[in-house]
Design a protein that fits this description.
By secondary structure, this protein is mainly alpha-helical. It is built from 15 helices and five strands. It has a five-stranded parallel β-sheet with strand order 1-2-3-4-5. Strand 1, helix 1 and strand 2 form a beta-alpha-beta unit. The radius of gyration is 28 Å and the shape is elongated.
């Protein structure tokens, strides 16, 4: 490249949004930076997604801070401007970056070429502004007044209506629902007698609850991602987990993934509970044992929706997500324990095959997630970008 563009290349960028918080980051990247610097004779840098006060340039000549419109404040003299979809807001941010970089004797401001060509190169006013900037002068940007935007739809209200409305409709068209729900939580032994004697024969309440829980699982993942991750975080996750995230619509893909994975896992759970237990002769019995405790997760989802617009911290979001998973995990185990009471013999092997194996799989899944760099490190990196 230096032969093709003599005196036009002033530095070499090695990484864009690396996982800087990885304990081995400095050890590995310093060796790479030294090799590139020795080979090219150019200063080397990388583009960071961390705030300016967290930049780590060990082994590099400098680090470039990324600036998103309306999201962070420049704290360095080497900056990458990442414009957003709002052109007016992006141009205002660029004007502030011009003002900031002119305060230094030396500065670097990187602007995406495609955005520059689309919004700057064909405009004579902006050509003049950029020419003056290169001479060390700041001119005001001719940014048109932002048109009044109508209020955006409050999706949290829609989500609340989706959960509560589906429950109310269920009550309206399934009279057994309103009778059985309080009986499960407040007169559980009576509920078990109804199940074993097959007094609750309607299979539809259990099926509807599983579908509701699958929708709620998708909403939980959607809201959790919206609270914990920003656009750059989701871009990183889309790169590392392409089967789960669609780059064009990561939130929708996450919702759909949560819905279908939840639905499949619930079907497997019902079959797992039903097939080894000869006293469970009807699927409606197994559905009634497994589905009703999932109502607790409707409350967890409601709490998350209520707090979502109040900028909850990572701790609260993580606590609610863990609570959701624990309720789901315990719903299977409680159902298995109740189903074992129907057996006159072989109840212990049934418990070992259901609760025991289910717990081992759950613990293994947690262990595998925590100890798998391919899963853990991209998530850690995405969280550090937020």
């Amino acid at each position: 490249l230096t032969d093709q563009y003599p005196d036009r290349i002033i530095s070499a960028g090695l990484f864009r949004y690396p996982n800087e918080k990885h304990p081995q980051f400095n050890a590995y990247t310093t060796q790479i930076a030294d090799s590139i610097r020795e080979f090219s004779g150019l200063p080397v840098f990388y583009q960071s997604a961390l705030p300016g006060d967290s930049l780590n340039a060990e082994g590099f000549d400098f680090t470039v801070q990324t600036i998103i419109p309306g999201n962070n404040t420049p704290a360095a003299n080497a900056l990458f401007f990442d414009p957003g979809k709002n052109v007016q807001e992006s141009k205002k941010t660029l004007e502030n970056l011009f003002r900031h970089t002119l305060e230094f004797e030396e500065s670097l401001l990187i602007i995406p070429a495609d955005w520059f060509q689309e919004y700057v190169a064909g405009n004579d006013d902006y050509k003049t502004i950029f020419s003056e900037y290169l001479e060390g002068n700041l001119m005001p940007f001719p940014v048109p007044q932002t048109p009044e935007v109508p209020p955006a739809m409050n999706w949290n209200v829609v989500f609340l209506f989706l959960i509560l409305g589906s429950i109310l409709i269920h009550m309206r068209f399934q009279p057994v629902y309103i009778q059985t729900l309080p009986r499960y939580f407040f007169n559980h032994s009576f509920f078990l007698v109804d199940v074993i004697e097959h007094r609750i024969r309607n299979i539809f309440p259990g099926v509807i609850i599983l579908l509701q829980h699958s929708v709620v699982t998708g909403l939980i993942l959607y809201l959790t991602a919206d609270s914990l991750f920003n656009e750059r975080s989701l871009s990183a996750l889309s790169y590392h987990f392409p089967a789960v995230f669609w780059p064009a619509s990561p939130y929708v893909s996450l919702f759909l993934a949560g819905f279908f994975v939840s639905l499949m896992m619930q079907i497997v759970s019902v079959l797992w509970l039903h097939l080894p237990n000869k006293r469970l002769q009807f699927f409606s019995q197994t559905l009634n044992l497994y589905a009703w405790p999932l109502h607790v997760n409707f409350l967890v989802a409601t709490v998350l929706i209520v707090f979502h617009n109040q900028s909850p911290g990572q701790t609260l979001i993580s606590l609610l997500l863990v609570s959701y998973l624990i309720v789901w995990f315990m719903s299977f185990n409680v159902a298995a324990y109740d189903a074992a009471k129907f057996l006159e013999k072989y109840s212990l092997p049934y418990i070992l095959f259901t609760i025991g194996l289910h717990t081992l799989l759950f613990v293994f899944l947690i262990w595998f997630t925590v100890n798998s760099p391919a899963i853990r490190e991209p998530i850690q990196m995405a969280l550090s970008f937020s």
